[in-house]
């Protein structure tokens, strides 16, 4: 047994070869960035979906104060119209303090704000599957209550959707650039590794070894390198998302925690999107190194 072990053939490229170590580090960084981009893509889509879903279930009625009009009477009229409108599930008249509280984040805590003619608001929850006729509703409100306006939040939904499209395109562009950089890194690492062991390859050619045999021996090293780098990048990326979920604002943190939860409805989709990264990294290392190796070996004949 000892004699057989002592005569076991050495690999063409040693496991601790400098090009492989450098490739592992560079690919791990690339995979880490790819995991962040892929996870960010999923989080963006989930966030926009949640926010637009909330907006699609609510509308707001605003009543401006008009001299000579009784605000409470106008609020009562608007509330009565809203409650009898098909598609309206819940009507909540916000008091004056609640309206002022909504303005504070925009203008700050100004003293005497309660003395200003701050518009009063009515929050309405609607049935998204059977929404009311907004045009008819606004006409009915304007006929009974001067100074009323209806906000369906459609403008905000359109802005969020457009933002999601831009960020999604950017995320895909980042993933493509990471993939191209990874391919270039593998090409250079393959050339460097083969050049450092050029004498071994030439001896193998002299004893009759075919290019496919040499490529298989060398390709196995690059396959393990890609898989190792991919797993390292995946683990670091998931840890980063866990840390970010704890530091993010509440509205985004809840979505991030649901994304990372092991019991969520989208568990398989969430982690499958991230697990694609090491799989792609392994394929890039395997295929790119194989193509590069075959070209170099042909030139060495």
Along the chain, the helix and strand elements come as HHEHEHEHEHHHHH
Proportion of beta-strand residues: 5-15%
Instruction: Estimate percent helicity.
Output: over 70%
Summed over residues and divided by their number, the pLDDT gives a mean of 78
Radius of gyration: 32 Å
The helix-and-strand class reads alpha+beta
Which spans of ≥5 residues are poorly predicted at pLDDT below 50?
1-8
- Morphology: rod-shaped
**Largest beta-sheet details:** 4 strands, antiparallel
Helices and strands, with pairings:
Blueprint: H1 2-6, H2 18-56, E1 58-63, H3 71-83, E2 88-93, H4 96-107, E3 120-126, H5 134-144, E4 148-151, H6 154-196, H7 198-206, H8 211-247, H9 250-260, H10 267-300
Helix pairs in contact: 2-6, 2-8, 2-9, 2-10, 3-5, 6-10, 8-9, 8-10
Which properties best describe this structure?
301 residues, alpha+beta, 2 domains, 4 strands, rod-shaped, disordered N terminus
Task: Write a structural description.
This protein has helices spanning 2-6, 18-56, 71-83, 96-107, 134-144, 154-196, 198-206, 211-247, 250-260, 267-300; strands at 58-63, 88-93, 120-126, 148-151. It has 301 residues and is α+β, with helices and mostly antiparallel strands. The protein has two domains: 15-52 and 157-300, no CATH class; 65-146, no CATH class. It has a four-stranded antiparallel beta sheet. Helix 6 packs parallel to helix 10, helix 8 (211-247) runs antiparallel to helix 9 (250-260) and helix 8 (211-247) runs antiparallel to helix 10. It starts with a helix and ends with a helix. Mean pLDDT is 78; it is low at 1-8.
